[in-house]
Fold these 3 entries.
Entry 1:
Amino acid sequence: MAKPDPQKDRNVWVASVRPDGRPHLVPVWFVVADGKWYITTAPGSVKARNLQASAKIALALENGDNPYVVEGEAQAVKPSKEVVRLFKEKYDWNIETDAYYTQTFEVVVRKKV
């Protein structure tokens, strides 16, 4: 069985918490740079609103047979040139010119589960 690899895996499941305490779970594209994980979303999306209200986040790679889960805090950031480059290389997607997914969050990992 292949070992999970955050640099190669295509999607990550993002778990955030709504202001009323209900969980929200959604798959997204992501990159990892210098130990921090980056996701990009629409500013008015449920996950963006959740992360603006509470920075707590959990991320899980897709392969449930070989789990890779991290927990941490997310904050909205302007993506660095390195993060922009990584999204372009991994997905052929320029996050700087996307008109919809304009909010980037940086996740500082506090715990690998």
Entry 2:
Amino acid sequence: MLIYKILTNAQWLAMQADGRTLGAPIDLADGFIHFSSAMQAAETADKHFAGQTDLWLLGVEEDDLTDVRWEPSRGGQLFPHLYDELPLNKVSWALPLPLGEEGHIFPEDPS
């Protein structure tokens, strides 16, 4: 199953340069990398990235990662959290996440 990570353009460029990421500042503070399911990604974008441009949506196969835990978060929903770094070679795809008049425009899953 694919899980999704939203990164800023600067974070995506840094990940490409480093070959991995430990996540955004909130991930570093929480001790894990926050992901969303397909059903949660739009709400995550609205809540944490409202009005932001220059974003990327990463699709990652959960089974390709070593330590993903589904834990309660927003409203008691279970969210995927990665307790490890995210290697670039585990990213299935990365697509721009443009901002439209009514919020972010999610691309079709290319897989």
Entry 3:
Amino acid sequence: MSRFLSKRLFALSPYVAGEQPQDMQYVKLNTNESPFPPSPGVIRRLSEAEAGKLNLYPDPEGRALRQKLAEYYGLKSENVVLGNGSDEILSFAFSAFCDGENPVTYPATSYGFYPVFAALYGLRAREVPLREDFSIDPEDYKQNDAMVVLANPNAPTGLALDLDEIEGILQANPDRVVVVDEAYVDFGAQSAVALIPRYENLLVVQTFSKARSMAGARLGYGLGSEALICDLQTIRNSTNPYNVNRLTLLAGEAALDDAAYYEENCRTIQKTRAFAAEELKKRGFVLTNSLANFLFAKCPGLPGKRYYQLLKERGVLVRHFDKPVTTDYVRITVGSLAQMQRLLEATDEILARPED
């Protein structure tokens, strides 16, 4: 770091993205991307887009896309804010609703960006341990003095709270914002969007990266009461009012028009997840009941890091989080059926010669 960096950032540990090695062709099951391409409508819309318009700024309000999202969820456009990925919406929320007097709380084992945002904005953060089975105890988040942030399903465990548990947390914290990060909700969990008309303190954050096959487009959004969204719009307009580019706005609109395509892909991923989980259990693995597009798995007889390394040597990438609570496990993205079969083949090779 340079001598000019602010002292408050000296101890900042940035978020570490999933590795993207270029030394060989990998079966990439480490970053929870969709194995399916964007829908034909998205590809067609982008192909038809006039490149000449890239000299013009996009609509800073993203009005057409916000209206489509509002209609999709039965809300108004005033209930929608757009972001350059859902990470930007989360950043807005940490900035808008927390400060020196208003801290934040989230699970100690969850999405790695939560502690980064807390440190970036100089916030007091309460990190709550999970239960022994990796589940979240809703009671830990009731009647507290902080903004609550919950990934549902949680990452990297894939476990999800029921809607009534989310509602209990909302009811217990009427004077605090509750952020429900639903990046993986489309793969089997219950969305809290239906609760928005009843709870002014609820912010639901979603993304086009996972279920809608647009990780490379960087498009996320927040849904909440008009007042909450107005707060986030203030932050957005004070930092980067043109935060979603012209082509991404078009792709988002087209993706919503092709909802049936993505819903079918989600069903396929759920079937592939069930197949892979059952096959791993046959091999002695321990897994959580993941409702996300990934599995959280413990290899029999091998530390998580060693299993990860042996898979990588065989051209299969998974994610290992080297912390005491998660060190025995790896997170495995649910890819195509062929990709999961390759994972199983590599696993069989490893289990046959675990000393390698």
